[in-house]
Amino acid sequence: MTPPVRRWTGDTLMFGTAMLMGSSYPFAKDVLAVMSPLLYSASRYLVASLFLFAMMALMRKPMRLARRDWVPMLLLSLVGVALFQACWGLAMARSAPSVGSIVMTTTTAFSAILAWFAGRRLSALGWGGIAIAFAGVVLVVNNSLTALTLSFGSLDGTLLWMLSAFAWALYVERGAPYNLRLGALRVMAWTTLLGSLVLLPIALVFDSPDEFARLDDRLLGFWLYTAIFPVGVAFLGLTAGLDRLGVSRVMVYMYLIPVAGVGLSAAFFGDPLTAARVLGGLIVLLGVILTRVALDRAARVPV
User: Fold this and answer.
1) What is residue 21's predicted lDDT score, i.e. its pLDDT?
2) Sign of CA dihedral 252, 88, 260, 149
3) Phi/psi at 134 (nearest 5 deg)?
4) Residues 6 or more apart whose Cβ sits within 8 Å of residue 192
5) Mean model confidence pLDDT for the chain
6) CA-CA to 59 of 20 to 30 Å: which in 121, 147, 172, 272?
7) How many CA atoms, within 13 angstroms, populate the side-chain half-sphere of residue 131?
8) What 3-state class would DSSP assign to 61?
9) Contacts of 105 (CB under 8 A, 6+ apart)
10) What is the pLDDT of residues 194-244, one digit of tens each?
11) Count of beta carbons in the 10 Å neighbourhood of residue 3
């Protein structure tokens, strides 16, 4: 495959991947109207893990884990799947999907903070980007340009979204060495499986499998869609995009996720699109882009 064709296919893959990832927000919101968050998150990630292992088998990718990798994979799964998805589902049940898709972009800001704790220098541009991103989150949650409407009720879901974003940033940061050594697809498959198996018994303490009987054909389709496409298929696209385009170019497409989430939520699911939420989302995106630029510059500077 020639480089221009390889880049064009990578761009196409990443555009579709970003759209799939963003689409999980409005579809999940409808399912969570009748299904508990923990059971929803655990069950869909279990299905996603089986899909990923099936794809690895079809692609003849190595699946086995060495004994030394079991504990790291379990620890990664506790953070990047069990904690991340528990908070994701609970936050989705408490707030609008457009809010979630915007707040989750602060993963980049948390990645920068983790890099700083690890000893990497962060420029004033990076700290400014972090401050701008979180200021945008405040505006999104306040959802007004003329009055202060913040309350504990409005912050409840947002704090869970931010914990979810932090958990994902920590998972990505700690998982990077294993992605290089084992392959990102194998790490994703195993952590998704282990995390769902940890979360499922916890969900069943509070919830009942009978909840699946409440799902009509439409909602059952939404549940299955969010299990396979925004997780399984999207991650296959992400790994292919990284191979063709590299990390920096792929990160640009990640900024389309809130666009897809907000747009689909407003167009098809009745999520109100206010001026404050649009402006706040743009401010968040500006902040994470500035932070990403600062991180890329810091990575090129010898320590």
Assistant:
1) 87
2) negative
3) -70, -30
4) 45, 48, 49, 52, 77, 81, 231
5) 86
6) 172
7) 6
8) coil
9) 133, 165, 254, 255, 257, 258, 284, 285, 288
10) 999 999 999 999 999 999 999 999 999 999 999 999 988 988 888 787 777
11) 8
| 3-class DSSP state of 108 | helix
Residues whose CB falls within 8 Å of the CB of residue 284, separated by 6 or more in sequence, listed in order: 102, 103, 105, 106, 132, 133, 136, 137, 140, 258
Quick one: CA dihedral 142, 143, 148, 153, positive or negative?
negative
- Asked if 234 contacts 17 with a C-beta cutoff of 8 angstroms, the reply is yes
Rg, the chain, Cα only: 19
Q: What are phi and psi of 278, to 5 degrees?
A: -65, -50
pTM of the model: 0.86
Distances (CA, A) of 160 to 84, 87, 100, 163, 203: 9, 5, 9, 5, 17
Structure tokens at 36: 């508990």
Q: If you count DSSP H runs as helices and E runs as strands, how many of each does the chain have, helices first?
A: 14, 0
**Contact (Cβ atoms closer than 8 angstroms) between residue 301 and residue 61:** no
Cα–Cα distance between 226 and 219 in angstroms, integer?
Answer: 11
Tell the residue number behind the tokens 């200021």, with chain if given.
Answer: 135
> Which has the higher per-residue pLDDT, 141 or 59?
59
